[in-house]
Design brief:
By secondary structure, the chain is an alpha/beta fold. Helix content is 31%, strand content 17%. The protein has an eight-stranded parallel beta barrel, surrounded by four helices. The chain has a five-stranded parallel beta sheet with strand order 16-15-14-17-28, sandwiched between helices. Helix 1 packs parallel to helix 2.
């Protein structure tokens, strides 16, 4: 690999960045509202791994818009300088993003009052009507940005970034969709850009010339909103006035949220179409983002003259040592981001204990104790047997081997990967296999004894005389017809040949599915989506029946539901929510509302194939048999309880640390 640009230094204003890899600001909630030791350790791991620049997550500047960090939090006076000291030895520069959400508030105002915005246009997220800001309120918020910037400089940061993107307060002034003002801040583009101009001018005047000042901009991808030309105007105006040192370019707002953080359905560099016109319109250093995963991809962008830096957040969440490993000539050792968004995005929207994580890297947010360089060697090398070669089993085998154990892994199928191999057959999901391919390569590199096409029962496990066993034997579809909304009324006709599980759908490649299908999704995760899109792409008319109140709600916060609906809209696809299947017969499926007794208000849908996606049953029989013989056994992943990939990876990881 020949990297000609990405590892070279870059001067941004008065600050030199050691390479062209940046980590743009992203919410983590790891600190729980503070800059605690876990959040410091998270950033320190990426600094140690060779990243050139990190931009710390949003810092609220005013009590009307609380962020995951807040400039008026007095605890930062001690923790922020400590953070800077921890980062300094590694040469990674630190910028702090300053933020006011306007009507898109992350947390309620301290006093419970309504949010502030350019006009009284409600947020698509909260639906709360904001207060239109008076001139006094505008001046107050701008002063709070200046105060925060000065404080950041005292703490020792290298720069501040003013968040003028993603539908937050500055963008609300810029966008005609949210700015209905008739004063000097509304109407023409010059007037709508006035708030940003005054904001940046005040911050630049309020800090020293040694502090970098930059902006984040983002065409919002909505009709009538702040588009590419608006942000070209803003960027050129700020450059012409000498107010900024760089431009960080993104995409999307809360009406186009999935475009902000595109999942695995998006290609590398998917944002460049809207980013490049802005980047090419200014002479200042620019940064672009958009699912970049390798230094080679980043180098290509910089080499082409399309940008000066490339933001790689999720890639360095997945592997904090991405830069270091690549510099050492080991790019194949980089743990890949699969773009599932389940931990990094979905984690911060979890109702209970919201906190960023990572599906492929269980150590995220717990770097001080779970980073691989913190793993404690086993006191005594043991023979560990892992039964099952899916992501949970492979992760257990990998971590146990790293700690010094001798590991044997047996897998009944002819290749490793488990259920991920089926998931990867769905449209746009091929990339999910990247992580199991990486695990497999790591296991062979580490010398794990891997035995494929090897089915062992409990007696064969006992005959191997292992010191401990990790069971990663997965789960089996539960085709009993029970839907959780109406558990006492299982679907009739489940015995018919046309009724199949998602496993059968993807494994029976030569099956004739006919011209129509009904997907009965009782789970609400991506599995049902995958089944629907797989059959729709084959030309079938697909009806999606779900007890849930929305389409695939468990991946809504991972930003997967809306893009999937957009793709399915191209096919013969219909959706029935708060609906259950009542009976399957030769003609099709009788369905009805979950809230009305059958058969009232029922509807018959033609279906040659019926796919029932239900909560699986763990393959736990071997655990019972082995523990009865006194063997130490740890069940992980679906064999423990059928859930999802992030949990499976974490359980495999933790099992490896406990052996």
């Amino acid at each position: 690999m020949s990297l000609t640009h990405v590892l070279t230094p870059l001067k941004i204003g008065p600050v030199e960045i050691k390479n062209r890899i940046a980590r743009p600001a992203h919410a983590t909630l790891i600190g729980g509202g503070t800059l605690n030791d876990d959040l410091i350790a998270y950033h320190e791991a990426r600094a140690k791994g060779g990243v050139g620049l990190t931009i710390v997550e949003i810092m609220g500047v005013h009590p009307t818009s609380m962020g995951s960090l807040n400039a008026f939090d007095t605890s930062l006076h001690k923790s922020y300088p400590r953070f800077i000291e921890r980062i300094k030895p590694y040469g990674m520069k630190v910028f702090q993003q300053l933020w006011h959400g306007g009507h898109n508030v992350a947390f309620p105002a301290l006093d419970g009052s309504p949010p502030w915005s350019a006009s009284d246009v409600p947020s698509v997220g909260s639906g709360v009507t904001p207060k239109p800001m008076t001139k006094a309120m505008i001046d107050e918020v701008i002063r709070s940005f200046v105060t925060a910037a000065k404080q950041c400089e005292r703490w020792g940061v290298d720069g501040v970034e003013l968040h003028c993107a993603h539908g937050y307060l500055p963008a609300q002034f810029l966008s005609s969709n949210t700015n209905r003002r008739e004063d000097e801040y509304g109407g023409s583009l010059e007037n709508r850009a006035r708030f940003i101009k005054e904001l940046v001018s005040a911050v630049r005047a309020g800090v020293s010339s040694s502090l970098v000042v930059g902006v984040r901009v983002a065409p919002d991808a909505t009709e009538g909103g702040a588009g590419v030309e608006d942000y070209i105007y803003v960027s050129q105006m700020l450059e012409r006035l000498g107010l900024i040192d760089y431009v960080n370019i993104s995409m999307g707002n809360y009406q186009s949220f999935p475009k902000m953080i595109g999942g695995m359905h998006e290609s590398m560099g998917y944002e460049l179409e809207t980013s490049l016109p802005i980047a090419r319109a200014v002479k200042l250093p620019t940064m672009v983002v958009g699912r970049f995963r390798t230094l080679e991809e980043a180098d290509q962008v910089i080499r082409a003259g399309d940008a000066d830096m490339v933001g790689m957040v999720r890639a360095t969440i997945a592997d904090p040592d991405l830069v270091k490993k690549t510099e050492e000539g080991r790019p194949e050792a980089v743990r890949p981001c699969i773009g599932c968004n389940q931990g990094c995005v979905g984690g911060i929207f979890t109702p209970v204990f919201p906190r960023m994580g990572c599906t492929v890297n269980p150590a995220v947010g717990f770097e001080s104790s779970l980073s691989e360089d913190k793993l404690k060697p086993a006191k005594m090398s043991k023979h560990i047997l892992v039964v099952g070669g899916g992501p949970a089993g492979m992760e257990a085998a990998r971590i146990a081997t790293l700690r010094g154990h001798k590991v044997t892994l047996v897998e009944a199928q002819p290749k490793l990967g488990g259920a991920v191999n089926m998931a990867a057959m769905a449209p746009t999901r091929a990339g999910i296999r990247d992580i199991v391919v990486w695990q497999e390569e790591e296991l062979y590199r580490l010398g794990v004894d891997i035995r494929l096409s090897t089915y062992w029962d409990a007696q064969e496990v006992l005959n191997a005389r292992p010191d401990a066993v990790v069971l990663a034997t997965g789960s089996t579809p539960r085709l009993d017809g029970v839907q959780l909304s109406n558990p006492g009324e299982p679907i009739e006709g489940m015995q018919l040949p046309k009724v199949i599980s998602s496993h059968s759908l993807f494994l029976e490649r030569t099956r004739d599915f006919g011209d129509s299908a009904v997907i009965v999704d009782d789970v609400g995760h991506y599995e049902g989506v995958a089944c629907a899109e797989y059959l729709a792409a084959k030309g079938l008319a697909v009806t999606y029946v779900s007890r849930h109140i929305s389409f695939a709600p468990m991946v809504e916060t991972s930003l997967m539901s809306e893009p999937a609906l957009e793709r399915l809209h191209r096919y013969k696809f219909s959706l029935r929510l708060r609906t259950r299947a009542i009976r399957v017969d030769q003609a099709g499926v009788l369905v009805g509302p979950t809230y009305v007794a059958a058969p009232a208000a029922s509807e018959r849908i033609a279906a040659a194939t019926v796919v029932v996606v239900s909560h699986n049953q763990p393959n736990s029989e071997m655990h019972t048999a082995l523990t009865a013989e006194g063997l130490k056994v740890i069940s992980v992943g679906d064999a423990n309880s059928p859930r999802f990939m992030q949990v499976a990876m974490r359980e495999g990881f933790m099992a490896g640390t406990r052996l």
